[in-house]
């Protein structure tokens, strides 16, 4: 198999994590989310976690250098040899250039949703504090009663932090579509999970 490096772009709540999981199962390559890497560092009380916790909670971006170093370490591991799915990286032009000097991205998938939809999804997003499963209070399936009690909200899913994250996405990440030019595939993210996955699957075989 040739190496496949797939980048998922899309505003907060556009379904990158959900679609990355589906792609991982189909393509047998790992899903790498820089947000998850940072949150794991925070949860394990690692030095890096202490450095970035305040930045994440406010909805700011971690420095390009720190983020790239963390990513580089992850994608240098053995399970990334056949390729990987990037979720949340790159978010700035500098990050895209740093990655390009190291490895070339093959395809960029953009999940398109409006800011209004993003805000609605994120303010209703909850996570099972034990299993990590994600639920949405306004869609199905509803969490079972015993799980409902242990649902938590991500520290940066407050209206204020969401607005800041969306602004950064429009200002700093969207210009990257021009940078990646003909590698970019746009998919309507305001459809069912299955339909979005189907559109991505069709786009990847083209
Ligand atoms: P979202 O895309 O919904 O904002 P993520 O889970 O992808 O959430 O990221 C959470 C936070 O982690 C970001 O708001 C930012 O603080 C940090 N982060 C993740 N990826 C990057 C990146 N590529 N560059 C800088 N900061 C990042």
From TrEMBL:
Binding site for AMP: 34, 39, 60-62, 88-91, 95, 154, 165
Subunit structure: Monomer.
Catalytic activity: AMP + ATP = 2 ADP
Group of enzyme by EC: transferase
Binding site for ATP: 13-18, 125, 134-135, 191
Protein name, per record: Adenylate kinase
Function per UniProt: Catalyzes the reversible transfer of the terminal phosphate group between ATP and AMP. Plays an important role in cellular energy homeostasis and in adenine nucleotide metabolism.
PANTHER family associated with the record: NUCLEOTIDE KINASE
InterPro entries according to UniProt: Adenyl_kin_sub, Adenylat/UMP-CMP_kin, Adenylat_kinase_CS, P-loop_NTPase
NCBIfam families per record: adk, PRK00279.1-3
Subcellular location: Cytoplasm
EC number(s) recorded for this UniProt protein: 2.7.4.3
Predominant subcellular localization, coarse grouping: cytoplasm
Native organism: Candidatus Falkowbacteria bacterium RIFOXYA2_FULL_47_9
Similarity comment: family membership: Belongs to the adenylate kinase family.
Renumbered residue ranges of the record's region NMP: 33-62
Pathway: Purine metabolism; AMP biosynthesis via salvage pathway; AMP from ADP: step 1/1
Gene3D superfamilies found in the cross-reference section: P-loop containing nucleotide triphosphate hydrolases
Keywords for the protein's UniProt record, in alphabetical order: ATP-binding, Cytoplasm, Kinase, Nucleotide biosynthesis, Nucleotide-binding, Transferase
GO molecular function terms noted in the UniProt entry: AMP kinase activity; ATP binding
Domain free text: Consists of three domains, a large central CORE domain and two small peripheral domains, NMPbind and LID, which undergo movements during catalysis. The LID domain closes over the site of phosphoryl transfer upon ATP binding. Assembling and dissambling the active center during each catalytic cycle provides an effective means to prevent ATP hydrolysis.
GO biological process: AMP salvage
Top-rank lineage group of the source organism: Bacteria
One cellular-component annotation, GO: cytoplasm
């Amino acid at each position: 198999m040739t190496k496949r490096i797939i980048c998922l772009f899309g505003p907060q709540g556009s379904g990158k994590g959900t679609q990355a999981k589906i792609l991982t199962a189909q393509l047998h390559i790992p899903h790498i989310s820089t947000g998850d890497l940072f949150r794991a560092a925070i949860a394990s009380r690692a030095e890096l976690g202490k450095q970035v916790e305040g930045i994440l909670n406010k909805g700011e971006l971690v420095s390009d250098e720190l983020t790239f170093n963390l990513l580089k370490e992850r994608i240098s591991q053995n399970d990334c040899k056949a390729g990987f799915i990037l979720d949340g990286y790159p978010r700035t032009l500098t990050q895209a250039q740093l990655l390009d000097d190291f490895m070339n991205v093959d395809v960029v998938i953009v999940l398109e949703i409006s800011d209004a939809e993003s805000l609605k999804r994120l303010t209703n997003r909850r996570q099972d504090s034990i299993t990590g499963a994600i639920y949405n209070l306004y869609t199905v399936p509803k969490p079972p009663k015993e799980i409902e009690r242990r649902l938590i909200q991500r520290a940066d899913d407050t209206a204020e932090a969401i607005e800041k994250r969306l602004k950064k996405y429009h200002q700093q990440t969207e210009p990257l579509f021009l940078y990646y030019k003909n590698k970019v595939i746009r998919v309507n993210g305001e459809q069912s999970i299955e339909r979005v996955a189907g559109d991505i699957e069709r786009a990847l075989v083209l």
